Amino acid sequence: MKLDDPTEQARKHPPHYGFSIARGFCFVKRSIWQLKVGSPWRDLPTEFGSWKTVYSRFRKWTDSGLFEQIFKIICEDDDPDMENVSLDSTTIRVHQKGTGAQKNPAAQ
Fold first, then answer.
1. 11-38 residue pLDDT tens
2. Mind telling me which residue stretches traverse the membrane in this protein (predicted)?
3. Do residues 1 and 9 touch, judged by C-beta distance below 8 A?
């Protein structure tokens, strides 16, 4: 599935969040830009609209599990493009005691 042509997947999985596919896709493009660049939400270019609106929708979609659903849909494809899938420390929480491990210079 290509990011620039979401219509095929959209037909398989109709929206149920109260917004159009076109508006939702524009939002996804804005979010991808922000996540790629790694800039603060307030630095979102003005052509993407209000940073607060984009951030609020991003939090709402994240909290509702929508991004997880999108990921599962992408993985349903026979040949998903995994080149742009990544996780880093900003998306994965560490257990409370995970930061207090003893340092062992010999192991590094």
1. 555 555 555 555 666 777 777 777 777 7
2. none
3. yes
pTM: 0.47
Tell me the domain boundaries of the chain: 1-78
Burial class (CB in 10 A: 0-12, 13-18, 19+), 21: middle
Chain centroid offset of residue 90 CA:
12
In Å, how far are 81, 94, 108 from 102, measured between CA atoms?
39, 16, 12
Do 57 and 81 contact (CB within 8 A), yes or no? no
DSSP character for 99?
G
Task: Please name which of 40, 6, 33 lies closest in space to residue 21, comparing C-alpha atoms.
Answer: 6
Q: CA–CA separation, 57 vs 59, rounded Å?
A: 5
- In this structure, the number of other CB atoms found within 10 A of the CB of residue 90 comes to 8
Residues 6+ apart with CB under 8 A from 51: 41, 42, 43, 44
